[in-house]
Specification:
The structure is a single chain. The chain is globular, with a radius of gyration of 24 Å. A five-stranded antiparallel β-sheet has the order 4-3-2-1-5. It is an alpha+beta fold. It starts with 19 loop residues before the first strand and ends in a 21-residue tail after the last helix. It contains three helices and five strands, in the order E-E-E-E-H-H-E-H. It has a domain of about 60 residues.
Length: about 110
């Protein structure tokens, strides 16, 4: 009889405490937060609604009603600095002349 191969446990820690996580499911936005939870083995948990879950996957299951890969489902919310950088127009020149007509390269 062959011995069963043991699976390696993947150590995936939760993001730091106070990290806000967001998800979109069926067009609706959801928010969760990483909080201290001394009663959990990792010392941190995911607060979604009134409950604290031990993993992102468990919190994702509470949203969807079925098993979910929490690391793919939840994304860290953008900080205000990241959002500002994304929304501000780039100051990098585009190589196109501003205003005037573009030359087609043909002589008239």
């Amino acid at each position: 009889m062959t011995a069963k191969r043991q699976r390696k446990a993947i150590a995936r820690e939760l993001p730091p405490v106070c990290t806000t996580m967001t998800a979109t499911y069926k067009g609706q936005a959801f928010t969760a937060e990483i909080v201290e939870a001394k009663e959990l083995p990792a010392g941190r948990g995911v607060r979604y609604g009134e409950e604290i879950f031990s993993s992102l996957s468990a919190a994702g299951r509470a949203v969807t009603g079925h098993a979910t890969n929490g690391w793919k489902f939840w994304q860290p919310a953008e900080t205000s600095e990241e959002q500002t950088l994304r929304e501000e127009p780039s100051q990098v020149p585009t190589g196109q002349p501003s205003g005037g007509r573009r030359s087609s390269g043909m002589k008239t």
